[in-house]
Design brief:
Blueprint: E1 2-4, H1 13-23, E2 29-30, H2 34-39, E3 46-49, H3 53-56, H4 61-80, E4 84-88, H5 100-112, E5 116-119, H6 124-130, E6 136-139, H7 156-165, E7 173-178, H8 187-195, E8 202-208, H9 212-224, E9 228-232, H10 237-246, E10 249-251, H11 261-268, E11 273-275, E12 290-292, H12 300-310, H13 314-323, H14 328-340
Parallel strand pairs: 1-2, 1-3, 3-4, 4-5, 5-6, 7-8, 7-10, 8-9, 10-11, 11-12
Length: 344
């Protein structure tokens, strides 16, 4: 099987999937250049692509179109070489797409060339079919990152000490928003919703890389807001795991997404998740550790914080158990059977 793009350290998803497939005896060849993989398939029967928007996005519409045509031509060449195409549909459209109309056309073109799509929640299939997908759809839940971000605290006393070191009062809620401070994270809207909340006992930590307008806006918010603390730059795994495990909840404001790695990581470390109820998160609606947030409603944030305060210690254990119901071996088995045995 050919896998593109090549695994990278910053996001362990592709590497862990490749390792799990290799454990099942699937020969996986990866590369950073899709053209090279398509030109020399080396006897492979499948090409699996992740996050193709990395190749497409460009501020200039003409370059965006040219990149899309180039991707289509590579996939067409791969199919002429006898390769079948698979895609993992993390996101319906790429994050912060500079030209969503071109992105929509590119997704439809990709789906027209896919023989197999893997989704992390069953409801994804309807959206894919509506965009013309006629191939096979298989579903496998997003696995946890327990080995990449192991639980940092041996007991509740250690967690309490970590919160004290962060300057969080015992009766305060600690909210953490992990990951790059990109526009699609909708952080200014979260800041506005928190600022309008009468709840004073809240600390909000935003941890990750930021640049440009978002960085300036968040720095200004941090300067004038006592509730906000910025942890700028790439966060080492131990530091990020400590922040999340010490928190009372992960706070997310994504405008549009399919699968949120931050939500999965939060649940992995026992943190409840406050987030818009979109797509796969909607399946958590009945779970006590998922709190849906409608940023259009001024009452939503106060209600969400009240629900977090009402959660007993068992909610953290249930979140961890929920995240661990999925695993990489099971996902690899699902893909292996779908690609090489013709069954889901």
């Amino acid at each position: 099987m050919l896998l593109w793009p090549a695994p990278e350290e910053a996001n362990p998803y592709v590497r862990k999937l490749a390792d799990a497939l290799a454990q099942r005896g699937v020969v996986v060849t990866s590369g950073r250049r899709l053209a090279s993989l398509c030109a020399r398939p080396g006897g492979a029967s499948w090409l699996h692509v992740h996050w193709p928007e990395w190749m497409l996005h460009d501020p200039a519409r003409w370059r965006y179109r040219a990149r899309d045509l180039w991707l289509r031509s590579l996939l067409d060449h791969a199919r002429r070489q006898g390769l079948r195409v698979a895609w993992t549909a993390h996101n319906l459209l790429g994050h912060d797409d500079p030209h969503p109309d071109l992105g929509e056309a590119a997704r439809r073109a990709l789906l027209a060339r896919c023989d197999l799509v893997l989704g992390h929640f069953a409801e994804a299939e309807g959206d894919l079919r509506a965009r013309g997908f006629q191939g096979r759809f298989v579903c496998a839940a997003h696995p946890p990152f327990a080995d990449e971000h192991p639980a940092p605290f041996a007991d509740e006393a250690a967690r309490a000490r970590a919160r004290e070191q962060l300057g969080v009062a015992p009766d305060a809620l600690l909210l953490v928003s992990p990951g790059a401070m990109a526009p699609y994270k909708n952080l200014p809207a979260l800041a506005e919703a928190l600022r309008a909340t009468p709840e004073a006992r809240v600390r909000w930590v935003v941890a990750g890389r930021a640049q440009g307008e978002t960085l300036g806006r968040m720095r200004e918010d941090a300067r004038v807001d006592q509730l906000l603390r910025l942890e700028l730059g790439f966060q080492p795994r131990a530091r990020l795991a400590g922040l999340i495990a010490a928190s009372d909840a992960i706070l997310l404001g994504h405008k549009e997404f399919y699968t949120s790695g931050a939500a999965v990581l939060g649940a992995t470390l026992g943190a409840p998740v406050i987030a818009p109820a979109r797509n796969h998160l909607a399946s958590w609606r009945r779970e006590p550790f998922f709190v849906p947030l409608d940023l259009a409603s001024p009452e939503a944030m106060p209600r969400a914080l009240d629900r977090v305060r009402e959660m007993g210690p068992g909610a953290r254990a249930r979140a961890r158990a929920f995240a661990r119901e999925a695993d990489w071996a099971r996902m690899a088995a699902t893909l292996d059977r779908a690609m090489f045995e013709g069954v889901a």
